[in-house]
Amino acid sequence: MVCGALVLLAALLSLASAVSPSSEDTQGPSEAQPLGHEFEAALPPGKETDPFAIHHAAGIERIPNRSMVERLKGQLKIAPHSFEGIVQKRKVEGVFKVAHEKGWPPADAAGTGPFFLVKEAGRFFVLTERNLARVYGPIEKEEEVLPYIRVFSKLFFTRFGTLVMKKEGEREGDRIHYAAGSPEVTTVRKQPGGFDVRLVYYKILHQECFHAIHVFVHIDGTVKELGRKVLKVLGPGVRL
Predict the structure, then answer these.
(1) pTM for the predicted model, two decimal places
(2) CB within 10 Å: which end of the chain, N or C, has fewer?
(3) Mean per-residue pLDDT for 136-144?
(4) How confident is the model at residue 174 (pLDDT cuts 50, 70, 90)?
């Protein structure tokens, strides 16, 4: 897993298509590193809509699609944001989304956002993996796990996948959320120190397939990735 470097925002939304077909679960959960109270990835004053400053604060120096990112300078807008299904457990001045108001560039263009920030004591910080845990953790109840990991996954793993909860597929009228025939479904198991979660996704971007991401969600909200695996390939997929 990309450590606190906020995949979210740089490689963020291109991890959508990055699934290794041979990555197996080879290690168990380890002790969580102490989370600490202080936010990381602070932005310089006045730079909260500067994509290069956001990448730099997150520790990302090799910025993908650099020419696209250049074109975003001066065009990003910041607005308050809330994530569906989870609530802030730490009192902060707000969580914010930084994005192009007209939705450009293409949604699968890595490094171009949208970006997410948290504000405390008048300062903005990039919403890294650990900062997400600082705002929305601890995760102590089993019913909190899936809403939290859904948000985490869309920020740091795959923006375009649909979480598979039923092998028979899911549809709404004529709209198919995911096809039938997944070899597995998403599972959550409580264990000492947190929750063992096997996330099963259906995706069509670049490759249509079911794939799994195995993680351990520590009680403090930090997440350790344990492995990835393509479960079933359905076809070549589509490109945006």
Answers:
(1) 0.84
(2) C
(3) 97
(4) low
What pLDDT is stored for residue 122 in this prediction?
A: 97
Say which amino acid occupies 60.
Answer: I
Among 8, 123, 119, 124, CA closest to 59: 8
pLDDT of residue 29: 66
Domain count, the chain: 1
Q: Structural domain of residue 196, as residue ranges?
A: 7-235
**Using an 8 Å Cβ cutoff, are 210 and 186 in contact?**
no
Q: Evaluate whether residue 27 is within a structural domain.
A: yes
pLDDT tens track for 228-239: 999 999 999 877
User: What are the backbone angles phi and psi of residue 5, rounded to the nearest 5°?
Assistant: -85, 10
Does 1 map to a domain?
no
- Domain-located, residue 170: yes
